[in-house]
Amino acid sequence: MREHRLADATEIGRMITRIATQIIEHNKGVEDLALVGIVRRGDVLARRLAAELKRLEGHEVPVGVIDITLYRDDLQLAAEMPMVQTSSIPFDISDKIIVLADDVLFTGRTVRAALTEILDFGRPRMIQLAVLVDRIHRELPIGADFIGRKIPAARDEIIDVYFQETDGKEGVFIKKRANEETEK
Amino acid sequence: MTWTHKHLLGLEGLSRDELTFLLDTAERFHEVLDRPIPFVPALRGKTILNMFYEPSTRTSMSFAMAGKRLSADMVGFSKLTSAVQKGENLLDTVRTIESMRVDGVVIRHSCPGSAKFIADRIDAFVVNAGDGAHEHPTQGLLDLFAARKRVGSFEGKRLVIVGDITHGRVARSAIIGFAAMGAKVTICGPPTLIPRDLGKAFPYIEIDHDFDRASKDADMVMMLRIQLERQHTGLFPSIREYRRLYCLTAQRLKKLKPDVVVMHPGPMNRGVEIEPAVADGANSVILAQVRAGVAVRMAILYILAGGELER
User: ipTM of the assembly?
Assistant: First the structure.
């Protein structure tokens, strides 16, 4: 299936800079802020945002990682088992402002699972959501606070975000879903 | 990694990749145990039956805790309080359970093969929690898990298992598991406590009745519990003699590698097969083994429950 590139590395870089700026503006600084990325790729976004916040504000924002596999609402693992990654939030999240980061916001189910998981680690003052791509077709009442780009893709289209760190290439891509292919 | 097994009846037949997959998954659950709220909703809505036909505290508790930490409904069953007391046979008990629609069964029974007997007859997944002298696979996994944290890779490492092998499902699962991971296994103990054809069943192991010689360059030693209730069977002369020849004392430990890993499946007879100073010392991973037990049992319940729809 042919993929079309919707954004390249430079554009992704600009989106991240803008999201970081909005986070600072919205929270009037980065005090008490912490980033939590959802594996895999949300954690890359979280780390890049942290680097950007450091550059802009000169302040180190802690970064945590969560894998929501154990919190999914559809425990139907394929015969090909995904390796469950270790969640790691190496700081106390109580009273922190958590910015949850993921690459694509689609149905909202991943974010729902991530919220449940984060709340098992403690009681943050607030949780905000940053995504690189927001596509429509939400199945839950969930919205993002910081958005790189809104892409109203059709249900049978797949949006992929690739990062150098995880995929060896960089960009936002769209393609038609092949018949049997399931949602990633 | 493709997981193709519906049940866990033993470690026999599992490949190194499969064992590694189980241990890596357990690693993830080990992290969950450290959280402020050590529960995950992964098995919400699943019902798992804990059937214990033999007395057991740590294994049955460990399974119950593992299931609860995964948010599964754990239903307990013990021989003393059930209709087994009224003469119900195993197959009828199993059919009764089956009609209640459970997703998984954990079974401990004194008869070798009992877990397979049930697995062949029901739709639910079955985990063997010890069947007679056959296997105790989750014990073998937790031994591997606790040891791996210390030794890293098992390739070429030496494990010495000391004690009563005749009655030992723990030893059997350990032999199979550690050997599959690439370790060299030596069995040690009085000849009367080592089955005569053990070498035939496991041609890749070494048997040595001299503890000091066997353990000289060991990377791991596993001290098995001496079943004191069996001491009048004539299988070993006296506790005193056993202690002299096979007890892991502080003095003996000094002659071993400085970083040797000391394991014991529990419950311990302190002062018989292992001295308290060794059991509580820096080389011991005995308490880590107990904690590992919950993590590996979470991993196996999760994997077996999760693969269900794809079978």
Answer: 0.72
